[in-house]
Amino acid sequence: MENINDYKIHPREVADKSSKGTLKKAIKLALDVESDAVRLNTQTFNTNRYKAVKKIDDYEELKDRARQIKEYSIQNLPQLIIKLTDTIEHRGGKVFLAKSKKDATDYIKNVCLSHTARLVVKAKSITSEEIGLNSVLEKQGFEIAETDLAEFILQVSKEQPSHNVAPAIHRSRESISELFKRNFNTDKPLETGEELTEFARDILRQKFLSADIGISGANLIAAEEGTILLVESEGNIRLTTQLPAVHIAIAGIEKIIPSKKDFGIFIELLAASGTGQPLTSYTNILEPPLDLPILNLNGRKDEQREFHLVLIDNGRMQMREDDSFKEALYCIRCSACMNSCANFQAVGGHAFGDEVYTGGIGGAWAVGTTGILEKGRFAELCTGCSRCIPNCPVRIDIPKLNTTIKNRLIKAAGGPSLQKIFFGNFSIIGKFASVMPSLSNRISNLSVSRTILEKIIGFEKLRHIPLFAHKTLAKQYKEYRKVNKVKSKLNELTPKLVLLADVFTNYNNPNVGMAAIKVFDKLGMPITLSKLLDEGRAAQSQGLVQLATKRGKKLASYLAGLIDEGKEIIVAEPSVLALFRYDYKKLLNNDNQFDKIARHTYDPIEYLNMLVVNHKLDLSNYIANVDSSKPKIFYHGHCQLKTIGAGYVASEFFQRLNYTVKVSNVECCGMAGSFGYKKEYYAISKNIGDDLTRQIIRSDSFDNNTIILASGTSCREQIGDELNNPIFHPIEFLEKILK
To answer: Is the CATH number of domain 619-739 3.40.50?
Structure first.
């Protein structure tokens, strides 16, 4: 693997990803140099987080409470700022509200000058990165020592952070060892984590003992008591805030909450969500100025303890007034969204981020704190897979934030690109292609056609182009029903079921739709087919919000009418089901209609499993007993199905039928609809897909006869590009094994 220090493009040079060119360079750098370390570390954090939250009995209730506190705090922010200022100043501290980052750095610089400081020690602070504090102070002649181990590494390497909790997550132990040996005169081996930590500790200990000023951030600040919460794993924050005579705390105004009595909620959520720990190693709750002896007098006999709180606006009040971006202010910087994001796992924050803020949540922060919409262009790396939503401890809808950025970029450009028009209007393309599908398929897969598609709309020519069905689902269903008029065998069920003819299933996967129809017929629950209407999913994924809303409202009105007639809606394509159960709430802006649709739409296996669990359906009469000669199953749960709580139903269902099922733990297949077809993101998509296929191949149950089940169209396409095993939608496999 190439060494990051020898790479021709340095992370700081590609940090500003406001154009497609620099974003492409950043992606290449990340995949070539940083991907292995980022994936290992983020997936470790993510796995530990899943284990940690399972041990929290009231996890969902804590998340609700945290959300309520943040909503209240942001709503009442002006009053809380006044209260906090009064509290701290009454105690002898000083509070400065900085409108801009220059206001903040000027104030801090003047404090350092007034104390004729020579050495400033800093604890990790994303907000200090936002205002460019180190650069300002260094230009003034102050020595700045980063005391967090990861930040120390980055200071030596002159890189920007790539992650909120673990800023040097992109670096391997070997690269850190090489970095230290190149920059410090040492004959120590520096081969283990312990040796590296000891080496940095010895250097930093001298800094702590001679520092004039300590600068920290703040995880939360309580307005009522003027109390600061700081969580850490290394103990450096305690030394930074307590050894020097002067302590400067830097915090965005969004960190203020009403009272310290609510700290406990966030302490529990922060540790579990960020690193999977039940509690961080050190939890500091300070009410400065501290009434402690000063250890770092540095020859100044009359030195008094001094505390400065620098509250930073820098665009936050404007974000507060923005109905879309306001939600970003609820973020508590735990990084759960990054660790659970398949794209972030592949490239990290040097590609999926700007100079300061990274990951899915980073786009809104980059735009909000700079006022420059182009700074959020890396939001295009958010595929809308939605895996971050249930993992966020304050339930932030991060995909919606990024869809907003995409939509605003489109408006700023005067309209959508040809690429977005193409992928956002797949229903129109499918309609025309299905007139003469054989010809359409033949033409689209010609080498010259692939080249043209790549040049005009950025369709990656190496990617297999899915074939349009020779007969659409609508046509096949009509022909099937002419000779298959089945009456219900189970009168107590008397289901009135309608299969949604979604765009993807109708034009590309009618086999899945027909499998669902045949399964329900065999089980005595005949199902009809809906009208074909564009549900808005494709448009939404491209940031074409107005078009998605228009299409969504039309389909929602139709579905609501069916439901009013007593019908339940079966949806084969999971991304569309997630649209109905989650995205339509904000897309339609009609709570009654959304609630109705969300309650009456089901994945086909989910619906059948519900009947089995409720003892309304006994499958023993329809399926032969499974013996040891039957194939084993590997199941990859669709990311959006997992978000809406139905991601593992298929594995449970087939286990009930005595099949051996191995379940993937990959968050997303990496295809994510149109994302994997786009030239600029093809490498990321394949990188993630390779991670999934490696897991399948390494599975104990894998052999040439293993049946691979995946509900999503994209998932099946991604896996199918690499493996020759049969890959089915779960309803297809069920149809094959029914008597």
So the answer is: yes
Tell me whether the CATH fold assigned to 60-316 matches the one assigned to 619-739: yes
Most confident of 24-38, 136-150, 272-286, 614-628: 136-150
- The model's pLDDT over 193-208, given as tens digits with 9 standing for 90+, comes to 899 999 999 999 999 9
Q: Is the pLDDT of residue 439 over 80?
A: yes
Of the chain, the end-to-end C-alpha distance in Å amounts to 53
pLDDT at 484: 86
- Find out whether 634 and 702 touch, Cβ atoms under 8 Å: yes
Mean pLDDT of the region 475-502: 80
Paired tokens of 337:
């969204």
CA distance 525 to 530: 16
Confidence of residue 628 (pLDDT cuts 50, 70, 90): low
User: Is the pTM of the predicted complex or chain greater than 0.90?
Assistant: yes
Residue range 148-159: mean pLDDT, rounded: 92
Q: How many CB atoms lie within 10 A of CB 220?
A: 26
Helices (H) and strands (E) in the chain, counts: 36, 18
May I ask the CATH class of domain 60-316?
alpha beta
Share of the chain above pLDDT 90, in %: 81
Residues 627, 620, 656: CA angle, nearest 5 degrees: 65
CA distance 420 to 457: 8
Per-domain boundaries in the chain: 60-316, 416-434+469-602, 619-739
Report the pLDDT averaged over residues 695-720.
88
Q: Where are the alpha helices (DSSP H) in 602-712?
A: 604-613, 639-643, 649-656, 682-698
Rounded distance, CA 160 to CA 611, Å?
Answer: 53
Please state the φ and ψ torsions of residue 482, each to the nearest 5 degrees: -65, -30
Report which DSSP code applies to 327. Answer: G
> Phi-psi category of 572—alpha, beta or left, where left has phi over 0 and alpha has psi -120 to 50?
alpha
SS (H, E, C) 385-446: CCCHHHHCCCCCCHHHHHHHHHHHHHHHCCCCCHHHHHHHCHHHHHHHHCCCHHHHHHHHCC
Mean per-residue pLDDT over the chain, rounded: 91
Of 82, 207, 79, the C-alpha closest to 142 is 207
The verdict on whether omega for the bond into residue 631 sits within 30 degrees of 0, i.e. cis, is no
Residue 283 · residue 260 · CB < 8 Å: no
Q: What is the four-CA torsion angle of 171, 174, 179, 184, rounded to 10 degrees? A: 140
Contact status, residue 299 vs residue 103, Cβ threshold 8 Å? no
Q: Quote the tokens at residue 451.
A: 């080249």
Using CA atoms, how far apart are residues 128 and 297, in angstroms rounded to an integer? Answer: 25
Angle at 56 between CA 54 and CA 61, to 5 degrees: 110
CB atoms within 10 A of CB 483: 6
Token pair in block for residue 683: 């490498």
Cα 432 to Cα 423, 447, 611: the distances in Å are 14, 21, 39
* pLDDT for 12 beyond 50: no
64-76: buried (b, 16+ CB within 10 Å) or exposed (e) per residue? ebbbebbeebbee
Beta strands 220-222; 256-257: pairing state: parallel
Q: Kindly report the CA angle at 242 between 238 and 245, in degrees rounded to 5? A: 150
| pLDDT value of residue 301 | 64
